[in-house]
């Protein structure tokens, strides 16, 4: 019976009941050792079983915390017959986890999508309860896919419960339940159940501080323990209690318990084979079982509590632990388990062991278990002997850590490798710097990428430029191209120009780098044509997408971004998807597709959370911040803009300038944008679209001299880029400053070629205002009507109000404008509805959006009444563009 857990039981029962009704959910039960987390999981399992639910389980095992996919294998092995029903790439990645197929080197998050689909498929028959105990000891390769699935549960009928210690196993985005300590009344009831004499209860209750395990273990000794600060000591004191109990057992029993703790999985057959080498056997477990420390079944040895295993392992001498691991090495059935025990059993450099660990690291990396690969390569380097590739192994460890989303660890490993390489090159007969150019290039690229991810952009640029001449020319050119990109984002003109010169010196002249160097000096006439030519020469590359964004070629940028998103979806490259979605969302904002952009950003944020890309989440704020500025949502705009990283502060200033302009606060808008243009972080791609805002604010303040410089920049950019929208906006600003109707008319003609509807509506609004002031109200009404309709469609409330006011001033009546739906689709519903309307099945949509098919159906069920349809056939007739 559970005492003092009514609140926790109610919450868990609610989770289970929701799953039975088809609503999924996930919960983390977090607390100190012994607080009763496992007991709550067992109670939840019994409750679910009573309602006919299916339970699947995973338990983190401390000795296997660094064994790739050790936890996930527990989940998948009993379900292996269900894998063939999954989509091909998902089935392949889970079979690779089980070793049934060769590792495919796929994106690490595809495994999470496969787990989600598998749980959803199981729930098609009966609701599913997935219990994960001791999650703090899960290997990262197992923890990541389980969390990925948990965050995407919606309408599958799946409940997931994770139990974990206070520290470790970060699970942002999931609800948490923290079991409380037992009060004195519940503690007394628990002690009474264990037949503790009343005279001893008060002392034990005081010493246990309400921790259920401490109550039970202290009660077993029928006396309290020395008083002390218990919050931080209970686990240690219970551990000491277990050590004392183990210490009373015969030596042969202690050895068997040590072997069981070192083996970790409780595999009785393997344990007995290894025990034979140590001269012990099954009979030696009898005393431990009689003492209630372990339970032995026909196939497994199970410790009553994980702390007992910890006590059995930590209480043994190092020499004894090494001997046990060596015995387990001899009996290991898989090369990965063998490598795991080899690492624990080897204290001194050993060439053979190092090679086995490096091979295990390569296998782990191929299965996207990057954390395990980094650790194994590091261990291989530690045990390497003279002549082995110690530096190379550390370099691969750094690259694996970076791929696994741990830039800090990657930077540390790369620094260690570089120090060792420097020591090696100084020794007679060791490889020279020239012979290690490949390692230098790899380490430099890893360190720079880690620095950039950690917010040390200037250091990253400096490192790449400094090392480019220490490697082979083609490697140096690749480093310099990366350096150019980083430097552009930091607004570092000197480094952009230096990288361009170095590329030319290496014989790798780069038109994109040259173009960016000219743009940094505001030489648009020379820079933009180079970028346009670069885009034409390599239209399908990642750099082409970057180039199209810079030159304002919205159509090309959107097409390239959509293709990149599609490629990531098709190949399961989930980790690369946030950046592609961010670029797509930016182009969608320019095209007036606000809801689509918000859907893309929401998906990107969710994936970035899973990948631990916190800085990417901050970068993504710029897209919804601009939407909020256009729509006049001041509080949301300011909140998002303030969260923009310091490096990209001009992005925040640009959207805030637009917001303040729409609110009529022209002085603040102008001051902000002028300050942004004088900041080191400025660059044309970010701030040039705000030049029209700067110019309009200056005109509104009757300070035309403050519009001269931004107008000059804008006109030069428009001429060089030859983009119709840019030329139209430049003409509008020229008309605004020069009271020139011809420029207005030419601008409107160019807008008709397409692109940036918000800017077209602003041109129409300003022209209508000019016509009204020129006492031509009849002529003003048509452009004002057109502007108001576009603003209304974009939900640009302050701009709509301004256009409506101008129309009233002309004596005209605003035409009826189709309002936004009273119950608009959520971004996710819109995305699902569009794919369904295009003829994709729920399973295909699920694979593209990294959802379960049941969740896709749920979103369609919610979307149908909002759209006034009842089926996919009717949905296909709607215009959802």
Automatic annotation (TrEMBL):
InterPro entries: AAA_16, P-loop_NTPase, Sig_transdc_resp-reg_C-effctor, Tscrpt_reg_LuxR_C, WH-like_DNA-bd_sf. Pfam families: AAA_16, GerE. Residues 818-881 form the HTH luxR-type domain. SMART domains: HTH_LUXR. The keyword ATP-binding applies. Residues 419-438, 805-824 are annotated as: Disordered. SUPFAM superfamilies: C-terminal effector domain of the bipartite response regulators, P-loop containing nucleoside triphosphate hydrolases. GO terms for molecular function: DNA binding. The keyword Ligase does not apply. Keywords: ATP-binding, DNA-binding, Nucleotide-binding. This is DNA-binding CsgD family transcriptional regulator. It comes from Streptosporangium brasiliense.
